[in-house]
Amino acid sequence: MSFLTILALGVVVLVAAPYLAHRLRRQRADEVPFAPARLVPEAPPKARRRARLEDRSLFAIRAASVVALALLGASPLVRCSRLALSRGGASVAVAIVIDDSMSMRAKDDHAESRFARAKKGAEEILASLREGDAAAIVLAGAPARVGLAATTDIGAARATLESVGESDRATDLDGALAIARTLVGQLPQIDRRVIVLSDLADGNADAPALGAGSDTTVPVWVAMPELAKAEAASDCGILSADRAGGRARVRFACSLPQAAAGRDVQIKDGDKVLQTAPLPQTALGEVMLPLAGDESRELFAVLTGADAVASDDRALVVVESGPAAIAVVGDRVDDAVSTGGAPVVEQALAALHVDMAVRPLPQAPDRREDTAAFAAMLVDDPPGFTPEQRHALTAFVDRGGVLVLALGRRAAAAPLGATFEPFLAHAASFAPTPAQSVDPASGAPALGEGAASLADLGAKGRVTLAPDDAAAFEPVLKWSDGAPLVLRRPRGRGEVWLTTLPFSVDVSDMPLRPGFLSLLDAIVADAKERSAPLRGDVGVPWAFAGAAQVDANGPMGRLASVRDDGALRIVPTLIGPYRLTVDGVQELRVAAPVQREIDLRPRAVVSATTSSSLGGGVSVVDVSWAIALGLLALVAAETVVRAVTRPRGEIA
Q1: pTM, two decimal places
Q2: Which residues span the domain enclosing 56?
Q3: Is residue 652 domain-resident?
């Protein structure tokens, strides 16, 4: 036991002193008349009765005075640990990187989460700034983004920091550091630095140490390295929960195989448990559970037990669906004769290694539900469309699909009742082309250098559009005589592409040129951007190109949509289901956790990033003046109480 501890315990004795003084206080016994007492000889009074505890208010004031004296003596020993900057000049410029990823929800052995502690540290850093200092705020949840550009208005920085909340995003420390250096690198302050408040669990534990090879003009300071102590933290999360063929498939990941010990996965309908299976002790795996009944019921997959992060222990069970595919509609018999194998479009898509399935179709779908699995449809030289096909294709484009029409000889000779409305209002004509090459400059923005390869195509003919139809489209690539070769036009949430040459090598050798691959690559990129996956990574925006209004309700209520590059976007920041209403049509989407974020191992840092020369000192808090004022007030109160409670006739 230290000497200071003994002195602290001695305060208890001092507080008890006023109590004992009041208890030991004696006063004259009360005289009560008693007639027989006159017959007893008088004797010196010796009997005294011990007084009860009186003047309670006076006793309380004296006890409080003793406590105040003890606190006044101990005030030099009172210290408060706060983050503070080490200054190398008159003013400093700092970029505070706050990690708002899912791993920061872990509480470890504290009552507060890692994020709450990091946010409190950022508040202390802002409180230590002076007039002339500049501050910027960068959020490290993927994708890394600017919370506040560099400013000398510290009040604005505090307001921005107050609005930052927890999320389930992945971590992008490298991107956040790059943004932070850019924000403060060109400021006039000589002393500039990047302050990192993170648990460093970005899923790249084996990556180079944070701060290695960094710019010495803008050093990195890991201000709270204690956040990265994850020895006791473990987490398991559900990556996806799908339902198909009378069973449910639950994919999961754990930070450590031991984290799955003793845990189960349950399929629940509300509070009712339908199926239960033990969780295998592995870092990455899946569990299959039998599941029968109505697929319209809303079921959830839930992990039993507790871990560091609770938000990823529950996932909506959705009807299993693979990624969106690309449909290729054409005559496979004629193409097989020309190419000796699969159609040239399918071979070109295989050469691009697109991560979307390619499915050949003999003809365009005539039912809307048959188009639901596709993100893009490439139709080679169609002989027009029937009313049913036009209705299905129009709905496909309006919901966000990309339709590509390669017009040729058959398109110009459409049978009666088969048209291209509403995409083309007039019939097209097919005739020999007066030009054999293209204008590379016209296709450079969309096709890049590939446009230069489309020279001397050897085309046997081309389609000519009516002037009104051509004016409704945007030209992407032109013939050398100015006529359009590739055109596109947005419609609804999707887009329609037209080519005035078919994808057949019998008509031209355009499909054999590098520019054709560039064209398909641009179409696939457009389809990916406009496709609507049922499940996506949390933090990745959902784009709704062409939509006029998007309403969204997520795990925390209503979400506001923002317009970016002419398209409405919704950013899911939390894991769970989102109910969307896009131009009156209801959709369901699910935001799923990113696998690497479940890995709670911290990334290594270089020793210079935790150097005391950058900051982190301990400040002394002087509260003696406040205690002294309180003690004077108690003395004054005691004087007043003694004057008020003094009995009448008592000599002062």
Answers
A1: 0.69
A2: 3-80+624-645
A3: no
